Amino acid sequence: MNQPSKSTSRAPRGGNGRAGRVPYDLDAVLDIAVLAFNEFGYEATSMGVLAERLGTSKSAIYYHVTGKEDLLRRALERALGGLEGILSEPGALEGSPVERLRYVLRGAVLVLADDLPYVTLLLRLRGNTEVEREALERRRAFDHVIAGLVDEARVEGTLRADVDARTTVRLLFGMINSIVEWYKPGGALTPDQLAEDVITVAFEGVRVHDAAPVPTARV
Amino acid sequence: MNQPSKSTSRAPRGGNGRAGRVPYDLDAVLDIAVLAFNEFGYEATSMGVLAERLGTSKSAIYYHVTGKEDLLRRALERALGGLEGILSEPGALEGSPVERLRYVLRGAVLVLADDLPYVTLLLRLRGNTEVEREALERRRAFDHVIAGLVDEARVEGTLRADVDARTTVRLLFGMINSIVEWYKPGGALTPDQLAEDVITVAFEGVRVHDAAPVPTARV
Asked: DNA binding happens at which residues (chains A, B) (predicted)?
């Protein structure tokens, strides 16, 4: 689920850069920008603040991008491109609806865990600018594909029909999107395990299903 | 799950109040304050803005409360009091751990749906002031009780042990807390049905469990 287009090379932070140099690659500039957007809000973050955080000059940032909006567009592209990329993978196209749904949701968790600050930025968008509205439109289109898979799986009879389809989709996304609030990348819980846990809880529920209907009867 | 202490009487909105009058009861003042805090943030909301929204004077608000912090304290008390109240109900104290867990989570959804803006305010707290930190402490204590029930239910064997207890709690709360992002009170989905749906999805999962392990074999 790592996007092949995503460069993981990073220039060293800090160091002996002088103003005007280009000590960071675009990914590092984006990383800093996204953290600042998430912390202060996009509107409240100036290019000057970003330059300060990078320990460089504004002109060094303009070497990579045309401005703040360009940074936002590229950051959102990374989150959306990662999510949309799942939809064209074989696992999302082949198999039964419930299998495809499981594959796509697992993939969404992995993109979220891999690019946590980028997806956080996407999830907190309010649609104040054209760039934000376009991103929200793409996110809605992604959600719409999931909703379609949920519908198909209900028709197939593998997804429960006693909960409204719309509510099902919202609860699934509620659970998945909440990960940005608590998941700490690099900790004991790996992205793969996290994805496994989410899929287990979402599809199978937290209850042990071979337990008797009245659980107390079993203990 | 409606809190008996919660007055539902409301003075009419708008109308012919003149400045200095006390045209609203405390609940109506709180309602307006909470909506404003959620929209603009607590720090950015002045008593003047609140008075304007109420169509009254600041002194009319001071008739009810000692100031903005008092409004915040009372608003958070309503959300927290509602949640904590569940824990002393018979359903939360009697029965097996999994039954008590189900009862408490269902109750939390109902409080959330009943007092949506109040719980939204609670969930978005950052802990910037003493009042906020105290509220966060009480929220953590509530979450801690849930975590204890999850632990007990795992020991009992009714809750799955193949997902980490901490992750289980976070995913359950992730699903429940996300409701503030999309639920519209007064619509077709009643609080009772919402609570039922959340409990079904959380405990039983979205998959139909009498389906064959490989769902395609069934269609």
From this structure: 46-65
Q: What is the CA radius of gyration of chain A?
A: 21
Q: How far is B148 from chain A (nearest CA, A)?
A: 15
Does A171 contact B207 at a Cβ distance shorter than 8 Å?
no
Per the CB < 8 A criterion, the answer to whether A93 and A142 are in contact is: no
Tens of pLDDT, residue by residue, chain B (219 residues): 444 344 444 444 444 444 445 557 889 899 999 999 999 999 999 999 999 998 888 988 898 899 999 999 999 999 999 999 999 999 999 999 999 999 999 999 999 999 999 999 999 998 989 999 999 999 999 999 999 999 999 999 999 999 999 999 999 999 999 999 999 999 999 999 999 999 999 999 999 987 455 444 443
In chain A, what residues touch B103 (CB-CB under 8 Å)?
none
The verdict on residue B3 lying in a domain is no
Residue B165 is part of a domain; what is its CATH number? 1.10.357.10
Question: Are B207 and A157 within 8 A, CB to CB?
Answer: no
Interface predicted TM-score (ipTM) of this complex, two decimals: 0.83
Does residue A150 sit within a domain?
yes
Contact A99 B215 (CB under 8 A): yes
Please judge whether A158 and B189 are an interchain contact, meaning their C-beta atoms are less than 8 angstroms apart: no
In a domain, A19, yes or no: no
* Single pTM value for the model: 0.84
Pairwise CA distance, residues A23 & B46, whole Å:
44
